[in-house]
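Marked as duplicate of an earlier ticket. Keeping the data here for the record.
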Amino acid sequence: MKILVIGSGGREHTLCWAFNKSRRVEKIFCANGNQGIAETAECVDILPDDIQGLKIFAAQNHIDLTFVGSENPLALGIVDEFGKHGIKIIGSSQTASQLESSKSFAKDFMSRYNIPTAKYETANSVDEAVNILESGIFGDKNATVVVKADGLAAGKGVIIAENRREAKKAINELAQTVGEAAAQKIVLEECLIGDEVSVLLFADGKNFALMPPCRDHKRIGEGDTGTNTGGMGTISDAALLSEQQLKQITKTIIEPTLTGAAFEGFPFAGILFLGLMLTKDG
């Protein structure tokens, strides 16, 4: 098999390393890759957001399977485009990918299907976000509030503001931090306290298979301090979630998500990421 992996980070490096272990794989390409990836795959000078360029490359090189590692190509519709031309690819459709690429889309979706999520409000401008804060819906001026850029921000679009003053500062600096496109909408959330855990799964639109739970360490400093990054490493341990917790997550989050997506006309096929906070209330 000829494999094309799309992306240039640690995730794609791991994917290329894993594919390289398979006897069925004869050649691995990575667009656009990096120096580490070049040790196990042939790096291709095509950017992950060049959908047409990637499609042409896959067709001309008779790629048997394309695996999308990064989120941006999914948000740009690469799966839809490859599908039109019969090119096999792993990833979610452009509409389904909004569950990750748009926080407001995901929050509204969860609200429609009674999927547990933190209380939130979505603002379409800086002024509207500040007005929501000052309304007191998230508590008084000393309450902690989570400020999120709506769009993809390489893991840097979430700020946990310790009080209203910090929240206003985060709101005003958000576009500068993550870019205007990602910050066109601003999502404000109540701050949940608990243990953070991630659950990922493979889905075909109806059926799914869980990966082992893991915990992502995003803060740049020691002791979980400092600003968020795209990820400072993860650990995976089955003890992160009990069997009962996994059953609850499946019943209250995974099944409603897959059912709701199918009902709304965008069956989720690909890899679904669930970022969870285990609070004292569930």
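See parent ticket for discussion. The chain has nine helices and 16 strands.
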